[in-house]
């Protein structure tokens, strides 16, 4: 019966399974009806009996006006679909679903954040009933979707407690793709591939199937307009050489600079993006701002490493042509951090800026380099991995600026024993979102020359009313300095010349001190010992 209904709807809509739903294709009448109904579904949900989120979050979502929400939908007539979010599959039955609609409830918050995911089935009215369902006169039934691993718990009523309920929330845009064997073309070819040998990152050309995203933002009446995303051609392959010396294969080493008789400030910028649909164009400007912050306070270009989305061409940010590596070069990132943290008298101040989509346990989503919508160990950076990479760091001070949703989760993995020189500043609490670009705007444009990092944080706390920024200080207050390691609140304040001579960039180390620190030969970290975290959030 479902097949017959689907076929009749295709004939009625005059829409073929074989037509691609291009980003600029017009929305047909059924898709428009789905989009219009999404907000109505939200308002009819009985929050005290629903199980797609906590009761408090449900009521908060219903209080958001329609014009402040954003709607995403697949094109009617081009299914059936399967749906994947980074931490699992959305249950869609054996035959997939006719369509998918996602209501973004907090479009001004960083990903991940709560969304209402609706699955569309052709159905007669008597078969579209129960909590979380909505029937349309076109013969479509909209039903709240859930993750496959949560379905039995929800149906059996065994799910209890807000903590468990949050684990079953849908908080990312799913990858919607056609089912193999249907008339929908499933794959398109993408140039992709990555391997890593020690600090040498190699991106080679090979062909693999790549699932095309069929869920698109819709400029529907009454909803917030769609975001400006990064250009499609900039997100279809990994870019590892900003100079594009060789389009077929590029070998751009992530070199760690530790020179004899010298200690330098080191900066690392990690901005994941996961997929194009959650990668707005302004993320490139944020990368540029982080880079400019570092260079403004003396960090040498050779001591700044940027890992951004799928990489960037030389004509993108940063404009100065700084090397930008794909964020999915995770082993190169971790090897670099461990090297600057293990070499004696190499790093004075280490500043690490983290941003991008994050899962509710604080795990940062880097880049979906295999294009399947599912998070693999090499595509994410977990809090435990970060804490392990910074454990016992030999730098005089380590400062983390974390602008992600659920950033407070990172506080839990640090302790004063292994991270006595680490300070962490987050955009919000462990269950809060990062809103807009407020945190990054504050830290990246702040005049840091004479102000303690703790004071910069407190100023942000005092002016922020949407979240509860957190901090961790492994030194228990002993470190009182700026982001580049200079003493703060000095009277009279240091002149720029004094700062440059004594604290900015690189400083000479007395030979006797350097030789004492190198009594035993320094051995670089073994890449084979850098293992991925096996306790992934979607395995729990």
Provide a quick synopsis of the model:
The protein is α+β, with helices and mostly antiparallel strands. The protein is 21% helix and 21% strand.
Outline the structure in words.
With 540 residues, the chain is of the alpha+beta class. It has two domains: 193 residues, no CATH class; 265 residues, 3-Layer(aba) Sandwich (Rossmann fold), CATH 3.40.50.1460. Helix content is 21%, strand content 21%. It has twelve helices and 24 strands. The strands form six sheets. Strands 15, 16, 17, 18, 21, 22, 23 and 24 form an eight-stranded mixed beta sheet that branches. A six-stranded antiparallel beta sheet has the order 6-7-5-4-1-13. Strand 10 and strand 11 form a beta hairpin. The N terminus is likely disordered.
Ranges with pLDDT <50 over ≥5 residues? Answer: 1-21, 181-209, 241-251
Number of strands: 24
Mean pLDDT: 82
* Count of domain modules: 2
CATH topology of the largest domain: Rossmann fold
Strand content is: 15-25%
* Backbone CA Rg: 25 Å
SS-based structural class?
alpha+beta
| Number of H- or I-type helical stretches | 12
CATH class of the largest domain: Alpha Beta
Return the CATH architecture of the largest domain.
3-Layer(aba) Sandwich
Specify the overall morphology: elongated
Could you tell me how far the N terminus lies from the C terminus, measured between alpha carbons in angstroms? 37 Å
Instruction: State the share of residues found in helices, binned by percent.
Output: 10-25%
User: Major sheet, described briefly?
Assistant: 8 strands, mixed
């Amino acid at each position: 019966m479902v097949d017959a209904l689907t076929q009749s709807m295709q004939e009625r809509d005059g829409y073929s399974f074989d037509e691609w739903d291009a980003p600029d294709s017009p929305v047909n009448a059924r898709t428009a009806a789905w989009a219009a109904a999404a907000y109505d579904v939200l308002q009819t949900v009985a929050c005290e009996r629903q199980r797609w989120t906590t009761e408090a979050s449900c009521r908060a979502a219903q209080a958001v006006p329609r014009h402040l929400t954003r709607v995403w939908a697949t094109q009617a007539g081009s299914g059936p679909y399967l749906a994947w979010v980074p931490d699992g599959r959305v249950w869609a039955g054996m035959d997939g679903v006719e369509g998918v609609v996602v209501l973004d409830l907090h479009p001004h918050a960083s990903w991940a954040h709560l969304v209402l995911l609706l699955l569309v089935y052709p159905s007669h009215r008597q078969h579209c009933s129960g909590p979380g369902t909505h029937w349309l006169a076109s013969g479509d039934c909209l039903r709240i979707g859930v993750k496959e691993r949560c379905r039995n718990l929800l149906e059996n009523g065994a799910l209890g407690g807000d903590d468990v309920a949050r684990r079953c929330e849908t908080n990312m845009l799913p990858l919607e793709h056609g089912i193999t064997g249907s008339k929908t073309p499933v794959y398109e070819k993408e140039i992709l591939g990555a391997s890593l040998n020690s600090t040498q990152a190699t991106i080679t050309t090979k062909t693999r199937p790549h699932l095309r995203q069929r869920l698109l933002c819709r400029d529907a009446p009454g909803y917030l307009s769609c975001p400006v995303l990064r250009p499609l051609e900039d997100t279809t392959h990994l870019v590892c050489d900003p100079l594009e010396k060789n389009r077929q294969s590029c070998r751009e080493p992530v070199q760690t600079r530790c020179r004899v008789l010298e200690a330098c400030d080191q900066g690392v910028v990690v901005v994941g993006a996961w997929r194009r649909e959650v990668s707005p164009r302004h993320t490139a400007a944020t990368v540029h701002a982080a880079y400019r912050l570092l260079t403004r306070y003396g960090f040498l270009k050779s001591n700044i490493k940027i890992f951004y989305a799928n990489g960037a061409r030389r004509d993108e940010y940063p404009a100065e042509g700084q090397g930008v590596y794909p964020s999915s070069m995770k082993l190169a990132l971790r090897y670099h951090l461990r090297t600057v943290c293990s070499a004696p008298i190499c790093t004075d101040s280490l500043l690490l800026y983290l941003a991008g989509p994050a899962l509710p346990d604080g795990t940062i989503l880097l880049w979906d380099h295999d294009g399947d919508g599912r998070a693999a160990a090499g595509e994410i950076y977990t809090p435990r991995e970060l804490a392990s990479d910074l454990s016992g760091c030999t730098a005089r001070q380590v400062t983390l600026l974390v602008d992600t949703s659920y950033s407070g989760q990172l506080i839990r993995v640090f302790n004063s024993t292994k991270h006595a020189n680490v300070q962490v500043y987050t955009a919000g609490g462990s269950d809060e979102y990062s809103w807009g670009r407020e945190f990054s705007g504050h830290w990246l444009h702040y005049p840091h020359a004479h102000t303690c990092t703790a004071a910069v944080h407190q100023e942000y706390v005092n002016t922020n009313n949407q979240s509860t920024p957190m901090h961790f200080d492994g030194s228990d207050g002993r470190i009182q300095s700026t982001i580049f390691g200079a003493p703060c609140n000095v009277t009279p304040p240091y002149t720029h010349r004094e700062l440059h001579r004594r604290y900015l960039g690189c400083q000479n180390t007395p030979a006797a001190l350097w030789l004492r620190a190198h009594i035993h030969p320094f051995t670089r970290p073994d890449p084979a010992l850098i293992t991925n975290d096996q306790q992934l959030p979607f395995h729990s």
